[in-house]
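Render this sequence as a predicted structure.
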Amino acid sequence: MIDDGIDNYGASDNFTEAEKLALRYSELMAEEPEKIDNAFYDELKKVYSTEEIVELGAFIGFNIGYHTFFGTLDFYPMFTPDGDLVSQEESKRIYGDKPTSHIKGLTVREADQAAE
């Protein structure tokens, strides 16, 4: 499901409107937190309770933080995008020379698939 729309979740039919809003919240927190204003929180409140918004925000913030921390240690994800457990060496091949929490552009796997 995720591979079929995460890069273009806003236009994907694979996510509910609530899921798209949560993904947008995550994207804004990671890339443009200054855009999370009262109007955005009002939008969230249309589908989420205050408790859910707080929980979602804390979860997103925690994930951004621990991915940043792992990046300082040159720690690569333990799993492939398909969910298979891999060594650090294989993960480095898949994700590139610099581990990131939010990969920009094609991963090695996607580049390999595009070349086929």
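Summary. Residues 101-106 have pLDDT under 50 and may be disordered. The chain is about 55% helix and 0% strand.
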